[in-house]
Amino acid sequence: MNRFSALALAALFSGVAAAQPTSSITVTSVEDSGEGSLRAALEQAAATAGPARVVIAAAGDIVISESLVYTGEAPLELVGNGQRVRTHENVDLLVSANGGNLAVSDLAFEGPGQFSILNRGDVDGATAGKGIFIDVRDDQTGLVELVLDNVIVKGVANHGIHVSDCTLADDCGGGAGGGGEGSPASISVRLNNVTVDGVGNGKFDADGLRVDERGEGDIHLHTIGSEFARVGADGLELDEGQAGSIHATTLRTAFIDNGAYCDPAMLESFMPAEPEGEFDDGERQPSEIPQAVSGSPDDGCFEYNVDTYDSGAVEEYEIAIDVDDGIDFDEADDGDLNLTMINSLISGNYDEGVDMDEAGAGGGNLNYINTVAYGNADDGFKMSEEDAGGINGMMLGAVSRDNGGKGAVFEEEDGGDVRVHVADTHTANNDDSDDTGLEVVQDDAGEGELIVEASTIEDGIDAEGVTVTQ
Ligand SMILES: [Ca+2]
Ligand SMILES: [Ca+2]
Ligand SMILES: [Ca+2]
Ligand SMILES: [Ca+2]
């Protein structure tokens, strides 16, 4: 036996010896509460202190009137057999309130549904309910793990699945614009055969899967054979602020028709006649431009940006309706953004299909392999990198077509290089087909390189500061 395997074995045995035994609890009743109920099992699991395994042996739907809350800090495994946990109330369905790891299999979680911007879940004093929610402790360390296997989440007003390592909870905001502090812990989310459908339609900025990570620590995401569809905001949003990186892989995962909570058709009539303008110094005062929209079904849907000159006069303004993406990552401060999509599909989303933003030190590493983006309202694939760090991009057997923006964008600002390799890839009919198939931009210090092999870029290449080899 060599030294390495001896050490590995020693570590394995010490790990087994140190682990606490897992308590096993059986749910024998589908009642909302009482003896043998899932609610009682979660209370018992929290009371055991160590890891617990709850097996739902009872057949039929479990209809709850208030949230199922696990308060333990130790890992909880919840094993179903195809049952549905349902509610008619606008509440969270399953909550791990003190950062305990969750592993859930063979269960569906269904909210009341019927939410829209005209039937919101966050008005009249209500808090919009989520499907599955882990609230990380402020002092948590190590790895917070959420593992879902054969799980369905539908019909909740807020996020379908949410892991929050952010002190501001639902007011963290997103990405570079996000706030809040976080624990030293990292977050790992693994989804296998998970469907998140029709959630997030009762509130602005409510996603299919949302991870808010602050403080030290990374986000690790792996999805296999999963689907995010008809979500009000982004199908999947990761916000990694402060130190730490995003490491994400999607395999055979679909992102379809997400981002329509702020339905442009519904809100268009609230837009000013001139939604944007650009002026010379002294030409227009702030009181002389359209004011922020009010009186709409949800005024949060309107982005309002005004830039002024030093004199106080308006330089430019823009008001826009905030629709959302298929998959949206924001990585800020130290750390990288790493995304590999394999055999995945991104279609019909109301903003970008793939919307990646990396800021601060660190770069972006993107691999789109046998992955298709079509019919998204803005770009099919978009990566923006700024500050120190560069971009390494690869499209292999990818397709991007019929999107309202560019087929694929790799834009790099400030110090750092951009290197993109495109092979066996097809782009067509993106936007107006005026050099919109591929856009690769290298700004400021650094080098740019685009290699295109065995590909058909019908709608052209727009390269700035980049050497193109075809
Ligand atoms: Ca953290
Ligand atoms: Ca970071
Ligand atoms: Ca950077
Ligand atoms: Ca650069």
Can you lay out the helices and strands and say which pair or pack?
Layout: H1 3-18, E1 23-27, H2 38-47, E2 52-56, E3 62-64, E4 68-70, E5 76-87, E6 94-96, E7 102-110, E8 132-135, E9 143-154, E10 161-165, E11 186-197, E12 209-213, E13 219-224, E14 227-229, E15 236-240, E16 246-251, E17 254-256, H3 264-267, E18 276-278, E19 302-308, E20 314-321, E21 327-331, E22 337-342, E23 345-347, E24 354-358, E25 364-369, E26 372-374, E27 381-385, E28 391-396, E29 399-401, E30 408-412, E31 418-423, E32 426-428, E33 438-442, E34 448-453, E35 456-457, E36 461-464, E37 467-469
The structure holds calcium ion (CA) (4 copies).
Describe the structure.
The chain is mainly beta and 470 residues long. It has 2 domains: 23-261 and 323-362, Pectate Lyase C-like, CATH 2.160.20; 264-321, no CATH class. 6% of the residues lie in helices and 41% in strands. It has helices spanning 3-18, 38-47, 264-267; strands at 23-27, 52-56, 62-64, 68-70, 76-87, 94-96, 102-110, 132-135, 143-154, 161-165, 186-197, 209-213, 219-224, 227-229, 236-240, 246-251, 254-256, 276-278, 302-308, 314-321, 327-331, 337-342, 345-347, 354-358, 364-369, 372-374, 381-385, 391-396, 399-401, 408-412, 418-423, 426-428, 438-442, 448-453, 456-457, 461-464, 467-469. Strand 19 and strand 20 (314-321) form a beta hairpin. The model is unreliable at 6-17 (pLDDT under 50). It binds calcium ion (CA) (4 copies). One calcium ion is lined by residues 165, 182-185, 213-217.
